[in-house]
Amino acid sequence: MLELQHIHKYYNPGTVNEMCLFEDFNLSIKKGQFVSVVGSNGSGKTSMLNIVCGSINPDSGKILIEGQDITKEQEYRRLRRIGRVYQNPAMGTCPNMTILENMSMADHKGKFFGLSMGTNKSRIPFYQEQLRQLNLGLEDKLQVKVGSLSGGQRQAMSLLMSTMTPIDFLILDEHTAALDPKTAELIMELTDKVVREKQLTTIMVTHNLRYAVEYGDRLLMMHQGHAVMDLEGDEKKNMNVDAILEKFNEISIECGN
Ligand SMILES: Nc1ncnc2c1ncn2[C@@H]1O[C@H](COP(=O)(O)OP(=O)(O)OP(=O)(O)O)[C@@H](O)[C@H]1O
Questions:
Q1: Which CATH number goes with the domain that contains 31?
Q2: Exposed, middle or buried: residue 10 (CB in 10 Å: 0-12, 13-18, 19+)?
Q3: Is the model's pLDDT at 113 over the cut of 70?
Q4: Is 184 inside any structural domain?
Q5: Whose CA is nearest to atom 3 of ligand 1?
Q6: Domains of the chain: total
Q7: Of 101, 113, 214, 240, which has the fewest CB atoms closer than 10 Å, so is most exposed?
Q8: 126 close to ligand 1 (CB < 6 Angstrom)
Q9: Which atom of ligand 1 is nearest to the CA of 47?
Q10: Model confidence over 23-37: pLDDT tens digits?
């Protein structure tokens, strides 16, 4: 269980640009739950992910994993058990390194990197087997630099690399937004497969309402630092894109847009 309890977050406190984003924000996510998060621009989706990952600290409140308080835990420590895939495919991989080197780097996540660290040749068949699941032929291009791959290929690799070592959480921050519709579809199918197979607790932020409806077992809509819709079970299954769009329009009218 991941819990955000009584989170308060101000940006630029004490300045003319002071902005209160979260005021007593609470969220509990059950182990193994796949939560899709939608919401208006600036509603706090990425800030929420950053608070979970430790990229930003809340002003007050607690973050708990299985009851253990991790609020003060440094980001690099937290990321040992969190996999994160960003909107920009360039963020999750190293362009100047080969596919093999990238896979090897992901394989060593959380382990000590000494000067002697190189690719362990005995792991190559394992990397190839992992890459084969992507169906992109990358298993035959181990010596190719990742920078020369397409955005979709890199994003598929980012997903694979972020879930290669045992993790408790997968954080997806608009991870299909920069991809063409066909590639985005492929990455979503792959995401669903990985999440189900590894039973990962997952938070996926997306602006694609269809993905939010079709994937995951809980749907959260954020607006101005609040969850204005939170559906799971049959309520989520019976939800459709039009109904979500209607809720979106309601929110926009309230905002005067
Ligand atoms: N580092 C920061 N400093 C100041 N304000 C910030 C910072 N990060 C985010 N904000 C503000 O907090 C609010 C929420 O931003 P956030 O990026 O969390 O929203 P979002 O829901 O992810 O938006 P989008 O859908 O546009 O990506 C916005 O008004 C944003 O300007």
A1: 3.40.50.300
A2: middle
A3: no
A4: yes
A5: 11
A6: 1
A7: 113
A8: no
A9: 18
A10: 999 999 999 999 999
